UniProtKB/TrEMBL annotation:
InterPro entries: ATPase_inh_sub_z, ATPase_inh_sub_z_sf. It holds the Pfam family ATPaseInh_sub_z. Gene3D superfamilies: Domain of unknown function DUF1476. This is Aldolase. It comes from the Bacteria. It comes from Sphingopyxis alaskensis (strain DSM 13593 / LMG 18877 / RB2256).
């Protein structure tokens, strides 16, 4: 029975690690997305840092990416930046790839 118990523990450990990695990559993606949006809005470096943190926090409102997209769209529109949801979604994908690369580079 210990072989099965060991396998079960190994799978549980791998699952927990995979979830942690996913969370870190998504948080990094949201931070990069916030920095991009802050640049588009012309925020100062201090404001950019605070805004990027706010975008990361916005992702905890509901499951999925819609809460982040809604925040960015609303804030960019309020700052008179002409942007579509499609552009935000495309940047979300770009920043996800960048965050994944950064995570892999930092692990090596």
């Amino acid at each position: 029975m210990t072989t099965f118990d060991d396998r079960e523990r190994a799978f549980e450990t791998k699952f927990a690690r995979d979830q942690e990695v996913h969370f870190r990559i998504i948080a990094r993606r949201n931070r990069l997305l916030g920095e991009w949006a802050a640049e588009r809005m012309g925020l100062t470096p201090e404001e950019t840092d605070a805004y990027a943190k706010a975008v990361v926090q916005a992702d905890f409102e509901e499951a999925g990416d819609e809460d982040v997209i809604r925040k960015l769209a609303g804030d960019l529109t309020a700052a008179n930046v002409d942007i579509s949801d499609a552009e935000i979604r495309a940047m979300l994908n770009d920043k996800a790839a960048e965050a994944r690369r950064q995570f892999i580079d930092s692990a090596n």
